């Protein structure tokens, strides 16, 4: 322990404890010692900040117990300098944060590319992402999960870059063959997104956002619990935004019509709890789709 702190043998004798231990931690350590000698804590395990001879602080772990030698009760323990482990964890976390930032920038670039090709799709995706995140928050998801929903929303239709522009901008209802072409966007979107290393299920969410609980959706017609929660949220947000907003082939139908539609489908095609949360967002919390 002397060497760990940079002292020669004997140099620690007579030094005040707060010279070698952060004063804020000493009170906690003293309580561990008291409990150890009273028998309430046979083995103590704790981490504290130690102070080297040069004044620098570092984290140390200690595992200690009480032994009796020559009739005297002594505290013995093993100290470990955690500096290397903490540095390794810091570097790992920094690398992960950098990788995540790069991936998010790639997603942002995809979103811009989608908007340049089809302004409607780009605007739609942004609004869907915001609504999905708001629904997720009210469902009790944490901020990180909601952030993932927002990001996914901005690229959930990225696969539409494969759909001919004349189909996307067609001012009338699509024919059956044209609709089959549009439906392929979920599979292509999955292929585009699946290799992005992000802490959210973005690829599968985009892949499943047109699936329905009763198996009537696409591309696979999966049912019930096979559809992840993020996809259920995205499905509701997608329908609401699409119905409320203008489309190339019709004017916007408004929020009231959109909420009525998802309410009718709740429990059969759409997750009932997600629908209820979405409806309350608009009717009780005055949520408004971003301009």
TrEMBL record:
Q: Which NCBIfam families match?
A: sensory_box
Note one Pfam family from the annotation. PAS_3
* Domain HD-GYP per the UniProt entry, residue ranges: 99-291
Q: Which CDD domains match?
A: HDc
Q: Which InterPro entries match?
A: HD/PDEase_dom, HD_GYP_dom, PAS, PAS-like_dom_sf, PAS_fold_3
Originating organism: mine drainage metagenome
Q: Would you tell me the protein name for this molecule?
A: PAS/PAC sensor protein
